[in-house]
Every structure is written in structure tokens, then in C-alpha cells.
Design a protein that fits this description.
Lyase, Ornithine Decarboxylase, Chain A, domain 1, 19 strands, homodimer
Chain lengths: 383, 383
């Protein structure tokens, strides 16, 4: 029997050591830590806001689950109007398809027989499951599954990571997928990750503008040479959303980080005018575990609680305003200059939300000071 | 019914997508990736070598499971002569105690009722389970469990992270634990993490020498003022092992990284004379997933497969000797200047083994080109 949370309706399985706190007064302050904390109010605002912005812009939203890796969050995005869910790994795809989510798009080209077999199994379970391909050999590999598979051609518009980089190559690959009796050409994908975090709108536009021109040229060539106008043109992120919306090339966007925000995105001016429309919703809560050096307390959050690829985590609760966090090994951090009680709690904005979430097993969902629910990070791991 | 692997005797539960490859020829080359790869020959050499070095030095070995987080590896360390297993988190302690491992020592002071209740439960299951304390309030918190608990006093010899920093404070805390009717004073702990990675033995000794003098002074004061000579003096790591052995203060050492080695430790000269006695045993295998830019192939290993706190991962297999890896986002890496086939495999030495292991779910245990077994990373997570 599946138990359900009375407050949020989510399924309740093994929810870790903090399960007993759900619904209790001041339970946010009683968490065993390090704990990923999701501010439900800010999260719900973000889900609703992006859905509204996409609707206003007349584009679909297929939010990227590489950010949250969570069935529960994907369900809420769909409930708010998302047309499907993007994902980056086979594990994410498997978790989302098996949970019954519609329109799952695996945005990474898949290589290797074991992963391909998993992908073929997912296509059997979900009719609107989609994968991408970025070279001719990949087409043959996908045909090996022997069943109708929805395929997008991945276009490299300047990131040089995955995708076909040249126009002729893109047209040739589109033609190849079109000609396949086993694959169904669903559209094209074009994602440029590195431009997302450029702080100022004008500079972001400068770096990204030429890339969008390349996408436009590919679409034009496909139209002229093949008479092909893709049903789906998918891509973009939280940073490029305003530009993508204006460019009018994409039929849908894959924004992911908007659900949580993080230190990196707090430093990005998302709109040319007006404040950022999204609120910081994700935190890591840590506890002071030693304060024998009274002006430099030691906490329990280090390299295992925060991804180290971005800026340092920002202290948001429990300290003076200008306190700065320092990592202090795998399991520890310190806060120089602060005088904190043993057992005191601090909360930090995640430096880069996606890989930080990947280190944790649970979202501790709070409203004010109450732990309202615990959700699983269902699809963590890199496989 | 528990299935067992015929080659290694380990338990077999859900072992992920590579399970079907176990025992097959050339299976190492067929892994779905990113995959943590453990070279069994090098690993077994390391386990045996550290056991022998400790025996020769007349000190016990309580290897630190914060490195491996694995029941199977802990069992092998015990089988090779370790007196017990150290661990850093409550989750690690729970996994190890519940698996029946002897002499589990939780090396971090525990704060907060939820974690303390778990600790009390573990003490009920294992008579030789031990925890540490570093302040007077901690003694009262541990007494709340209402049962005999083995406690070590944690001494800060210079790292300023946890532990009692001054001699008088250390003596007062030892006295307090001695006087407790509920706690059993098992000894003292002194660990200095930051000195472990100082590259040259002479410089390491210079930084660490004064710290060991402080430990000696604490032991002397405890002897003179309380007539107390601790049964256990535990601490030290892979980097400080030679110095600790010579100093004659420790009854046992908590070395952890020696089982795997990593880029950080490859850069440390462990012994004043002669080569490092340990072999690099741990790798992350990645696959080329896109090579449309032929001299800069894209792999599937990024911020989610390697901890970012240390140096960059070192390419050890599958490329030319001087190739240098670059991270390329959460799920990707690139290898500029290399021409690699789609699906080609590369293997990289982990930058910092402990937090890198924390990102993965399985050890893929290889001997030569055969995947011999898959072991769980049983106790990943920061809780």
C-alpha cells in the first residue's frame, strides 16, 4: 500500500531520518543535516511563473529534469502546463518514463549497447518518449532497436559539445532520419549551455546571437533543401529564455534551473528590464558541530554537500548578513567571524543547483518553519 | 535468498545496468559509463601492504571508511588484520554496524537529537562501537542515551576543525568522561587532515611536528594530572603515516586513501626514501559520446562524476600519454587534441577519491579486462 502525505499528496516511502518531523511545528529547525531544503512557496512561484511566461510567449515548456532529478517535481511541472520533461541521463529517462510522465526527451546522444537497450525498453513503455542523434552512426545504432523511435536531430550552434556543427551535416542527418523506416523524425534540438550564465543581457545576447543565426540557417536549409519544417525546435535554458522567446525559432524551451535558482543564477540578470522573475527556492541546511574556536564555528557541510564547480555557497539564514562560508574538507565547513551555538542551524544557497542536488537523497520541503514533506531525488547518479 | 558472486564471494543484489557483464571476456570495455572502476590487483596490494606496514610498526589499523563507504571493502580490510573501521558520518556508521563489522569508530562529534538517537541504537547493536566527544555539552548529550557508550575524547592538534584545542580543556574533558557513570572512556583521537597532502616529507614533518608535540603534551598532562594512560590513541592518515609510525604516540592509525590512491596522493611523496608503497586502484571510466569535432571529442564524465575540490582527473587509459582532461558541464568532459572513436573508452584517476566515490553507486571491480564483480557504494550521502 502506498501511503500519501496529507499535506502535499506525494507518495511516502523510506524518507530518511527526518521523516518523523513531517508536519510538526518548528520542524525545519530540527532537521538532521546536511539536508537539502526546498522552500515550497518560492518553488511553487517559480513553477507557476515560468509556465505563465511560456504561455505568454506562445512556446511550450519541456523543463529539464537534470536540475531536479525528481518525479514529484516533474509531476508538478506537468500539472502547471509543461508539455513534457527533458532529461540528460538514461537513468533520469528511466525514472521519469517508469513513473508515467509524458513527453520525456533524453537530450544527450546515447552511445553503447547497454544504454541503448534501456532506451529501447523505454520507447516500448512510452509512445511519446524521444531521443536525440548527432551523427550518421547514431542513426544505425538507434535503428537496431527495431521499433518506431522518436528522434530529434541535435544541432551544435556553438558550444562544440554535442550536436552536428555544420549546416550541410545537419541537413544530411535530418535527411537520413527522415529516410529511416524505423525512426520517426520529431524535430531538432539546439542547446548552448555556456551562454546561460553570462551575467548581463547585452553580453549574453552578443555571445548567443550568432549561435541563433546558425540555428536559423539550419532551419532554412532544411526547409529549402528537404522541404522540412520541424514540428519541434527545442532548446534554451533559464539564462537565455528572454532571448529565445524573442528569437522566435524555438517551439519550446528546456529551462531547468528556474525551479530552484542558485548562486550562479542569482548573479545573472535574466531580463533586460526589471528584476529576476524567479525566487531562490533551494538551500542546504547545515548544523554547527563544533565551536571550540568560538569565532570560527565548524559545520557539517563540505565537499560532499555542495558541488565545487561553481562559486562558494552563499549563507542565507542563521548568520550575520556578510558572513562568508568556507569549505573545510569532505564533511565540514566553517564560518569565520561568526559566533554560533553548538547545534545552531545555517542555510546556504546552493552554488550550482544541478550537481549539488545530485549529492543528496531527499528534498526537505518546508513552508515557513514547518517541514511539510520529503521528496526523493529519484534519479541521482551519472549513469 | 542472498546470491553470492562465484569469483569474489560478495553478496549480489541489484547491481545496476552492468550486472550482466560480470565474468565475461573484455567486459571492462563494455561498461555503461560513467563507471567507477576498481582495479582488484592494485586494491588487494594496497590492503595487504598497509596491513603489513602497520604490523611491522606495532600499531593497529582502523582504516577510514569515509574513503570507500563500502561494506565489502571494510570486510576485506578486517580480513587482512584491521582492528576495526573508522567512519565520518552517522550513515556510514549505521551501514557498517548493521553489516556486522567490528570496532566501528565514528570520528565526528555528533550533534542533534535525530543523529544521537541513531547513534544510541547502534551502540545497542554493537558492544565495541565508539564515538568521539569534543566538549562538555557533548558529554551530557551522549549520556542522554542512558546506556554504556564507548567514547574517545577528540583532541584538536592544530587543524581547528573539531576537537579540544587546549591542554587544560582536554584534561577537563577526559576527567568529565571518566567521571560519567554512563560513558566508558575508550581513549583519545587526534587527526590533522590538512597536513596529509603536503607533497614533501620534510615539509610535512615541519608542519606536523608541532602538532604531535601538542598531542604528546596532552597525553603527558592526562597521565600526570589524572593518572590516565589511554588504551587507544587513534588518528593519522595516509599522508602522515610514516611520521605517525615514528612518533610512537598513536596506538592505531585511521589511514583511508591508501586503498585507492588518487591524483592528490600521487603528488605526495609518502616515504622519505623509496617509492610510494601503494598503487592507484580507482578510476572513472568514461565513453566518447560525440566526436563531431574530431580533435576534441566529448565524453560523458563531468561535474557529476568527479569531485571538483581537487586537481583535474588524470587520464590513465585510452589516450596518448600527455592528453589532459577538461570538464565540460555536469554530464560531459572533453579531451582536446585527441582523436577518439565514438564509443571509445577512457579511464581517469580520481582527483580526490573520497568525494568522487560519494557521487557513484557502484564499484566495477576489474582484473585485467574482465569485470569480476560489482560492489555497492553502500554509505554514500552526507547525512
Amino acid at each position: 500500500m502506498t501511503m500519501r502525505n496529507k499535506l502535499t499528496g506525494s507518495r511516502r516511502l523510506d524518507l530518511g531520518p527526518n521523516q518523523g518531523l513531517i508536519g510538526k511545528p518548528k520542524s525545519r529547525q530540527a532537521l538532521a543535516t546536511p539536508a537539502l531544503v526546498l522552500d515550497l512557496g518560492a518553488f511553487e512561484h517559480n513553477v507557476k511563473t515560468m509556465a505563465r511566461l511560456c504561455k505568454q510567449a506562445g512556446v511550450g515548456l519541456r523543463p529539464h529534469a537534470k536540475t531536479h532529478k525528481s518525479v514529484e517535481i516533474a509531476r508538478r511541472q506537468i500539472a502547471a502546463g509543461a508539455v513534457g520533461i527533458s532529461c540528460a541521463t538514461v537513468r533520469e529517462a528511466a525514472v521519469l518514463v517508469e513513473a508515467g510522465l509524458p513527453g520525456v526527451l533524453l537530450t544527450t546522444p546515447i552511445v553503447g549497447n547497454i544504454k541503448l537497450d534501456i532506451v529501447f525498453g523505454l520507447a516500448k513503455r512510452s509512445k511519446d518518449f524521444m531521443v536525440v542523434v548527432d551523427n550518421l552512426a547514431g542513426v544505425a545504432a538507434l535503428e537496431r532497436g527495431g521499433r518506431k523511435l522518436n528522434v530529434l536531430v541535435d544541432i551544435d550552434i556553438g558550444m562544440t559539445r554535442t550536436g552536428v556543427p555544420d549546416i550541410a551535416g545537419a541537413v544530411a542527418l535530418i535527411r537520413k532520419v527522415q529516410a529511416s523506416k524505423l525512426l520517426k523524425l520529431a524535430g531538432v534540438q539546439a542547446y548552448s549551455g555556456m551562454v546561460q550564465h553570462i551575467a548581463l543581457p547585452a553580453e549574453r545576447e552578443k555571445a548567443y546571437g550568432g549561435q541563433l543565426k546558425h540555428l536559423q540557417a539550419v532551419l532554412q536549409a532544411a526547409s529549402e533543401e528537404l522541404g522540412y519544417v520541424p514540428e519541434l525546435v527545442t532548446g534554451g535554458g533559464t539564462g537565455s529564455f528572454e532571448i529565445d522567446r524573442r528569437a522566435g525559432l524555438f517551439t519550446e524551451c528546456q529551462c531547468g534551473s528556474y525551479v530552484f535558482m542558485d548562486v550562479e543564477y542569482e548573479n545573472v540578470q535574466l531580463l533586460s528590464t526589471g528584476p529576476n522573475p524567479f525566487r531562490t527556492a533551494l538551500f542546504v541546511q547545515c548544523t554547527v558541530v563544533s565551536n571550540n574556536h568560538p569565532t570560527s564555528p565548524t559545520t557539517d557541510g563540505g565537499f560532499k554537500s555542495f558541488s565545487m564547480d561553481g562559486p562558494v555557497a552563499r549563507l542565507a539564514r542563521g548568520t550575520s548578513k556578510d558572513a562568508v562560508y568556507q569549505y573545510f574538507g569532505d564533511e565540514f565547513g566553517k564560518i569565520p567571524g561568526e559566533k554560533l551555538q553548538l547545534g545552531a542551524k545555517v542555510e546556504l544557497v546552493t552554488p550550482h543547483c544541478d550537481p549539488t542536488v545530485n549529492m543528496h537523497d531527499f528534498y526537505h520541503c518546508v513552508r515557513g518553519n514547518v517541514l511539510e514533506d520529503i521528496w526523493h531525488v529519484d534519479a541521482r547518479g551519472s549513469l
